[in-house]
Design brief:
heterodimer; A: about 400 residues; 7 helices; 21 strands; globular; B: about 150 residues; mainly alpha; 2 domains
Chain lengths: ~400, ~150
C-alpha cells in the first residue's frame, strides 16, 4: 500500500498552458477607459468630506462603506438613491473606531453598513451586534438578521489576532434585517447596538477539531480546559463561536452578553448605540389568480410582492400524488424579469403539508431597477454539480404577468 | 487602480485562475474561455471592487461564475474514465484522479484553501456560503481524499 505523508495538491493540477495565458493577455489588452461618472456616489463622498471638515469628526473617508455596494452591488436606482439614509457617525473605543456608513429600507428589508479601524497597538475587543426596530412605541418583530463579514449572532474580535492570520480580513461589514408587519406610510426607527467586551483571559489560536484523533465532545472539552486555564480560544483570528458554544453560552443579544461576562473570560467595556430613522417605501402586492401545470404538480401563485429592493413570492405546489418527504422535492426557483435578466437569489424554501400533496414555497430575489417589473419568469433551479447534463433552458418554467 | 495596474493584477492571477478553472472544468479549452471571459468581465465590473486587498477573492468569484456558465452551456459531463487530456499532464495522476473524484462542492473549497492559500473568510466570500459550511466541506474533502489515496 502506497502511504503518502504529504499531499501536495499542486502536483494534481497541470501547469498553466500557454493558450490560457495568452487568452488572459489578449483580454487585458482590450481594456479601455470610459468616461463614466457615478455622480450620486461621488456627491455623497464629497458631502461626507465637507461634513467631516465642518464637524471635525475623525472618521476615515477612505474606509467609507455604503449600502450601494453591500445591498445594490454597485447598481442602484433612483428610488434606491432617494431612500438611502446617510449615517456617517463614528465612535472610538480603546483605539478602535467604528464608523456607520448608511442605511436603506424597502419596507421589508433594511440594509446597514459599517466599517472598523484600529490604531496600531490597539488591543482586541469583542464586538457583539444587535438590531432592533420600532414603529412609534411598538417594537417590530425581526424575521431575520444577517451580517456580512461578521457573525450576526456571535459577533467577532477586532482588531483580529494577527498571529492567526496572514492576510487582510474585512474591515467593512453589512447588516440586514427583515421586519414583519410594518405599517404603511410613516417611518421606522432602528436601534443598532454594539456590545463591546474586553477579554480578560489570554487569546490563543484555536486548534481545529481533528476527527481522526478525538471525538467532537473531547475537542469541545479541550476548549473548556483552556478556559479553566484562563485562555480564550479564537478561530481564524476573530471567531469565538466554538469557544462560547463549548461554554454553553446561549440566548440572544443582551442576554447573551451578560452570559458571556458571567463566564469570567470577558468584562463589559462599553455599549455603543446608534439610532436612525428610515421612511417606509410602498410595496406592491399582487395576487394573480392563475395556476400553472408542470410535470407532476400544479403551481398556484399565492402572492407576489414587489418592493424597491426585492421581490417576494409565495407559491403553492399541489402534487398529483402524495410525496414521501419534502427533502426530495425540487422547489427552488430562479427568477427572471421581462428582459430575461436573472434576479439575484436571496432566499428560498419549501415545506410539505401534512396532506403530503400540498407544498408551500416561499422565496425572495433582489431587484433594484428604475424599470417597472411587468413579468416574472420562474424557472426551476437545479444543482448542476449533481447533474451537469442539464442546462437552465431544460428546466421547467412558468411566466407570471404582473400587469394586464 | 488605473488600467495598467488593473491589467497587471489580472495577469498576476493567471496561474490561480487556471487552477481553479481546471478544478471546475477539467478541460483546457473551457478553462481558456472561462479565464478570458473572467478577465473581460472583471474590467467591466471594476467599480464593484471597493478594496484592492480583495482583488484576488473578487476575481475568483467572477471566474467561478464564468465556469458555471460554461458548465451550463456546454453540457459537459466528465466521467472518471473520460478525463480530458490536458496539454500538460499533472505530475501526480493518481492524486489528480482522486481529486477529480471528489464532488465539486468538496473539491473546490479544498483547492482554494490548501492549494491557493485562501482563508475560510475569502472562500466564503467567493462561494457565497457560510464559513461553517466551508470548514465542514474542507474537512470532508480531506477525509475522502485520504481514504481514496489510502493514506
Amino acid at each position: 500500500m502506497d502511504k503518502r505523508k504529504d499531499i501536495d495538491l499542486r502536483s494534481a493540477i497541470p501547469e498553466t498552458p500557454d493558450m490560457c495565458r495568452d487568452a488572459v493577455l489578449q483580454a487585458v489588452s482590450t481594456y479601455r477607459e470610459e468616461r463614466t461618472m457615478r455622480r450620486p456616489y461621488k456627491m455623497i463622498l464629497a458631502a461626507a468630506l465637507v461634513l467631516a471638515l465642518l464637524c471635525g469628526t475623525a472618521y476615515a473617508i477612505a474606509n467609507y462603506y455604503s449600502v450601494r455596494e453591500y445591498v445594490a452591488l454597485g447598481k442602484t436606482s433612483e428610488a434606491f438613491e432617494n431612500a438611502i439614509v446617510p449615517l456617517e457617525k463614528a465612535i472610538t473605543v480603546n483605539g478602535v473606531t467604528v464608523t456607520l456608513g448608511d442605511a436603506v429600507f424597502d419596507g421589508r428589508e433594511m440594509g446597514l453598513t459599517m466599517s472598523m479601524e484600529a490604531e496600531e497597538g490597539a488591543e482586541s475587543l469583542y464586538f457583539l451586534p444587535q438590531i432592533e426596530a420600532f414603529s412609534g412605541e411598538k417594537r417590530l418583530e425581526l424575521n431575520d438578521y444577517k451580517a456580512e463579514g461578521m457573525d450576526a449572532y456571535w459577533g467577532m474580535l477586532y482588531p483580529y489576532m494577527t498571529t492567526a492570520v496572514d492576510y487582510m480580513l474585512p474591515s467593512r461589514f453589512g447588516f440586514s434585517a427583515e421586519v414583519q408587519d410594518v405599517p404603511t406610510g410613516g417611518e421606522v426607527t432602528w436601534r443598532y447596538t454594539l456590545h463591546v467586551l474586553k477579554p480578560v483571559g489570554k487569546l490563543v489560536e484555536q486548534c481545529l477539531w481533528d476527527d481522526e484523533k478525538e471525538t467532537y465532545e473531547q475537542w469541545e472539552q479541550s476548549l473548556r480546559d483552556l478556559h479553566a486555564q484562563g485562555e480564550i480560544s479564537v478561530l481564524a483570528g476573530y471567531s469565538l463561536t466554538d469557544y462560547l458554544t463549548a461554554l454553553n453560552v446561549s440566548g440572544q443579544d443582551s442576554i447573551k452578553t451578560d452570559r458571556i461576562v458571567e463566564t469570567g473570560a470577558f468584562e463589559k467595556l462599553d455599549t455603543i448605540v446608534f439610532e436612525f430613522t428610515t421612511p417606509v417605501p410602498e410595496r406592491t402586492s399582487i395576487v394573480p389568480d392563475e395556476t400553472y401545470q408542470l410535470e407532476g404538480y400544479i403551481i398556484k401563485v399565492k402572492s407576489i410582492t414587489v418592493g424597491m429592493m426585492q421581490v417576494d413570492y409565495e407559491l403553492e405546489a399541489c402534487y398529483d400524488a402524495p410525496q414521501p418527504n419534502e427533502h426530495e422535492l425540487e422547489q427552488s426557483w430562479a427568477l427572471y424579469d421581462q428582459n430575461g435578466t436573472e434576479l439575484r437569489f436571496k432566499s428560498g424554501g419549501w415545506s410539505l403539508a401534512e396532506d403530503k400533496v400540498t407544498c408551500k414555497v416561499t422565496g425572495s430575489a433582489s431587484r433594484i431597477s428604475d424599470e417597472p417589473l411587468t413579468a416574472i419568469t420562474f424557472r426551476l433551479d437545479h444543482d448542476f454539480t449533481i447533474d451537469p447534463d442539464d442546462t437552465a433552458e431544460d428546466m421547467p418554467f412558468f411566466i407570471v404577468q404582473l400587469t394586464k | 487602480m488605473d488600467k495598467q495596474a488593473f491589467a497587471e493584477r489580472v495577469v498576476e492571477q493567471t496561474d490561480r485562475m487556471y487552477r481553479i478553472a481546471w478544478t471546475l472544468l477539467r478541460n483546457d479549452d473551457d478553462c481558456r474561455d472561462a479565464m478570458q471571459e473572467a478577465a473581460l468581465r472583471a474590467w467591466e465590473k471594476r467599480y464593484t471592487l471597493r478594496e484592492e486587498a480583495y482583488f484576488a477573492t473578487w476575481l475568483t468569484r467572477i471566474l467561478i461564475n464564468e465556469c458555471h456558465s460554461i458548465q451550463r452551456k456546454r453540457k459537459r459531463v466528465v466521467y472518471l474514465e473520460e478525463v480530458a487530456e490536458p496539454a500538460v499532464q499533472p505530475r501526480d495522476m493518481t492524486l489528480s484522479l482522486a481529486l477529480q473524484a471528489l464532488p465539486e462542492k468538496l473539491r473546490l473549497p479544498l483547492v482554494m484553501h490548501s492549494l491557493e492559500g485562501m482563508t475560510y473568510d475569502e472562500i466564503a466570500q467567493a462561494l457565497r456560503i457560510s464559513k461553517a459550511t466551508i470548514t465542514g466541506r474542507i474537512q470532508r474533502a480531506k477525509q475522502r481524499l485520504k481514504k481514496e489515496l489510502e493514506v
